[in-house]
Amino acid sequence: MNIFPVNDRILIKPIEAESTTHGGIVLTSKEAGTPKLHGEVLAVGTGNLRTPQGGRIPIEACKVGDIVIYGNVANTVKDTIDGEEVHLVVEQAIIALIS
Questions:
Q1: pTM greater than the 0.70 cutoff
Q2: Domain edges within the chain
Q3: In degrees rounded to 5, what are phi and psi of residue 91?
């Protein structure tokens, strides 16, 4: 199935982040208390309609294939597509790129 986000939406496949305690115990993000939202960008929308002439401002925060850290903002949509969890977020939810 192909999914094409509209406007300033970005489709992300979450990646479970691990963290390690000072003692060397590996905790998943759920056990660590606050989920760390890391993911791979699967698709990017065409940009938001922001100009008076109806033009689009393209998404510059990320591109397909990037690994990002993103926030869980109020309008984040979480769904399962073809058995995989995906998140649909707005461009402003992207906090950082991981290289």
A1: yes
A2: 9-98
A3: -55, -35
Question: What class is the 9-98 domain?
Answer: mainly beta
| pLDDT tens readout for residues 1-31 | 688 999 999 999 998 766 666 677 766 655 4
Q: How far apart are the first and last CA of the chain?
A: 28
The Cα-based distances of 87 to 31, 51, 59, 82 in angstroms read 21, 27, 17, 13
Interior/surface letters 27-37, b for 16+ CB within 10 angstroms, e for the rest? eebeeeeeebb
Neighbours of 2 (CB within 10 A): 4
Q: What is the DSSP letter of 33?
A: S
DSSP letters spanning 39-67: EEEEEE---EE-STTS-EE---S--TT-E
